[in-house]
Amino acid sequence: xxxRHGAWESRDGAVVDYRDPMTAPxxxxxxxHSPEPYAHWLPVRPRxxxxxxxxxxxxxxxxxxxxxxxxxxxxxxxxxxxxxxxGIGLGFLRVxxxxxxxxxxxxxxxxxVVIVLLFPVTVDRDTEGxxxxxxLSTSGPPAWLILPIVFCAAAVIxxxxxxxVGRCFPELSxxxxxxxxxxxxxxxxxxxxxLSFLNAPPVVWGAIAAIAYLVLLWPDTTPARLLLVVPALxxxxxxxxxxxxAGALWSPYYKVTNERFDVGGVPVLDVRVNGIPHQQTLxxxxxxxxxxxxxxxxxxxxxxxxxxxxxxxxxxxxxAIALSRGAQRVDAVEIDPQLRRLGVEFHPDRPYDDPRVxxxxxxxxxxxxxxxxxxxxxxxxxxDSLTLVSGASSLRLESYLFTAEAMRAAxxxxxxxxxxxxxxYYRERWLVDRLASTVQAAFGHAPCVDVVSEAGQxxxxxxxxxxxxxxxxxxxxxxxxxTPPPSDDDRxxxxxxxxxxxxxxxxxxxxxxxxxxLAVRVLAGPYSRMRPYxxxxxxxxxxxxxxxxxVTGFALLFGTTWLVNAIVFAGVLVxxxxxxxxxxxxxxxxLPVMYGVLAGGLLLSWLVPNSWLLSLPVPLRAVIAVAVxxxxxxxxxxxxxxxxxxxxxSTVAFGANLLGAMVGGCLEYLALLVGYRGLLIVAAxxxxxxxxxxxxxxxxxxx
Length: 703
What we know:
Layout: H1 44-69, H2 77-94, H3 104-118, H4 143-168, H5 174-197, H6 202-217, H7 222-246, E1 249-250, E2 255-263, E3 266-273, E4 276-281, H8 284-290, H9 296-300, E5 307-311, H10 317-324, E6 329-334, H11 337-346, E7 357-361, H12 364-370, E8 375-381, H13 404-412, E9 414-425, H14 429-443, E10 448-453, E11 458-464, H15 503-524, H16 534-558, H17 562-585, H18 591-607, H19 610-614, H20 618-645, H21 650-667, H22 671-692
Parallel strand pairs: 5-6, 5-8, 6-7, 8-9
Antiparallel strand pairs: 1-2, 2-3, 3-4, 9-11, 10-11
Helix pairs in contact: 1-2, 1-4, 1-5, 1-6, 2-4, 2-15, 2-21, 3-4, 3-7, 4-15, 5-17, 6-7, 8-10, 13-14, 15-21, 16-17, 16-20, 16-21, 16-22, 17-20, 18-20, 18-22
């Protein structure tokens, strides 16, 4: 979910109706595409709530489900976001151009579901620049083909609900339309959040989508009903078949599948997430005999640990090993509740049943920042998320766990004589050196570095609180000359060796922009007509960057969990509504003054460092973070609402703003080069450009 400027900009579907007397010019301009009242059996207010909730719910469901079956999308989540946003914009532009119900939406959804289930994709793990923990072969269509297909399908699917929302606005006053649209949008977020909490499978999502289509599009004729019922049955049936055959558990992050078998009489549970091998549950003693990396943290520690923190506890093997090594208290941190559930039910050692173990379902970095406890040993035990944070183009669930600041936080939570250790299959030697250098910078001395296997760079990095608290085998030779510096909280891209945007991103983004340019040109008219609305174009670009900065900032401050993201998205919607209500109910300052407020908000965001916020108690941190993040968002939405109300041609103005929003979504990847804080500078330049392009009084109105 991405909120846009005012209501035209909110991806939940809230749009500015230029005919509303409270915000429109004295004489609203005429248009050849004025939408006519839409005859429907359901009254307009409940219809608007249902359509808005369905639009947002469908978008979130598409992001989650496609990412679980097309693994490329686990690393390119904002491609589906951009496709959804483009579709919503195009749906509004279609209002008034046709009176036919948008049956194309359920039909396209059915086709997409069938294609994705027939041609699933596993990620290409041999791509330099987009590093993953292990190496697997690629199956299914290549990224350059499947990603644009999904993008276009998402756009067409979301056009339907958006068109239905747009048809409601002419029938209501602007105040009523905004209120009911916001109620619907928040309902959509709440419903999907509830289903995530309940671990509901996609067949439930599909059933809700089918019911919504039937409620909103039920026709009067039998042939038309077939156009609606058949796709709905295909969607529900295909998703039910997927659930039954795969036996999957659906967590808020993954499609989790598992297989149980014996190896030499040893029971094994093999766990896969989104089709990728992820974990295996084995008895602790067997694991210690087979893979030396699990024993090395204890061998490199001078004293036997009694209090242990395990980040990435998963299905419980690392917890069982800690208990077998004499730990008296274990805090097991795992972000995914379904992985922990599998450990509770199937791990042969039953580690989670042990009274010495306390489980925390949360983000590892957030736990470190929020606990006051100290430990004899802290383990980062294979915390590889294999997915990105929803709403952020390049932020993985574990990205903030491997920064310089995170290593210092781990050091600060060690008792005297304590030890920190991390292990995984790092794939690249430069990645091992980068992490070892990060640990060295945080602890002030060289760590122990044990490369257990050159194949896959299976390595263990261990550091005592002091050099006397660790006992290394072969001393670490230090990083190679080409080792990149440690990643930090502003640019937490551990797996990106150079400051660059990987070619696969660039190619796919160019394809997205090409499709967007063509679609907006068809529905909004020649681009030359958009020239007077250059400021609206830049407002769309800038706001996308502001939202990205907010999402990533809250992920650092409060954790990369699905619940935090849902709260942030809902907060952005509330900020949009607040700006609109203030604009409607009160006499707001002139646009130059509001641009000044916006500039002040951007400056405040720049001046308040995350390190200071992280030092505050959580309640105070939340209050200040909300104020700092949402002040520029609020000001930007007031600017947009005031400017759009004075536009002479709403369709062309919206087309320009939509095109800007698409460009802004692509420019999110600039964070790979300049960091997330640098996005504030880019946004400030864009807003300055928008201010300079404001129409001057006395200038002829654009038509």
